[in-house]
Predict the structure.
Amino acid sequence: MITVKPFAALRPQEKFVKECAALPYDVMSSEEARTEAQDKLYSFLHIDKAEIDLDRGVDLYDDRVYEKAAENLAAFEKQGVYQQDKEKKFYFYREVMDGRAQTGIVGCASIDDYLNEKIKKHELTRADKEQDRIRHVDTCSAQTGPIFLAYKNSERLDALIVKETSKTPLYDFVSDDGVRHVVWASSSPETDREIERAFAKLDALYIADGHHRAASAVKAGLKRREAKGNCDGNEEFNYFLSVIFPANSLKILDYNRLLCSLNGMDDRAFLKAVQDNLGEVEEYTGEGACKPQERHQIGLFLSGKWYKVRFYERVCKDEKVSQRLDAAILQNYLLAPVLGVQDPRTDKRIDFVGGIRGLKYLEERCKKDAVAAIAMYPTSLTELMDVADAGEIMPPKSTWFEPKLRSGIFIHKI
């Protein structure tokens, strides 16, 4: 049984929503955020990355950053940019990118379901990143960035999404990157109760993206539970802001690799090492880049040429679900033993590029600051959920979701 609740959103007036909506805080640097928000007085980056409104010398984790975020949020509300809905309800959020639409239900998931592992994870989190968002949530007394969740199968939820999104939307705008964003509110309290009942029939939800935001929201809620003492479970801090999508509507893009060193090998020795350790190598003779067409296959760009590499069957057999993923196989049979990259999260000899940039970008980087590139086949939602169901952890940099959920459209006050 899964608990998801409606909530009264603090949200922008329609005339401000396009300016307010911003990419998540963790996909851009402070300097990129300064540039992005430069001419946008009401960009949510003034709240999510409030250091952009302070001197550049101020540390990202300085108390002043969190205090500025709370100050900006209060100012936006006082000025009427954001207004508080009076009634609790569910919302529906659709993103359309390159002709493909995904529509999720916006509500608040239970921190107890997270603690009891009914909300399943597939990533490890870092304490420093958690602490940053805990302080942000606590100081603002609000959850400002939604967690991206998915559910496996629910014909009832699917039908309710279709029904409710046939009506007039609250918002309908296209962001600067060409993604269309459409938002609806549920039509009645009975619809809200139907949605709650449909979620209650599910066994699990899955975190697609936002592990640090989820962990931080949960820990901020536990902190408030402890401070308050006697809680009845209905307090808003017991729930965290989420957008919950049917898994079959989501798309994971490839997450590609750039190699900045061949560990002292020349091209010939490296190709032989790939052939010996990982898979069968053949020079690619097709047009354009070598984009993998199936699992257990990569494209390798080296000295201006593309090669197709098919993994040997022997390297694809592991008892653990997570270790049968292409990213794990690549790490275990090539990056670690051949190139000496033991921890891809911290090793400067490897870089990662989201598939949204395309394979041409990999070629361009190899002309500048990389010696080779690896084009990956995208991890599937089924693989992600299988790893989560097994209680395992995905290899680093396995998934790249597009489009990204925008922050600043919904705020959940706690």
In short: The first strand starts at residue 4 and ends at 5. Residues 327 and 343 are 13 Å apart (CA to CA). Residues 4-251+402-413 form one domain.
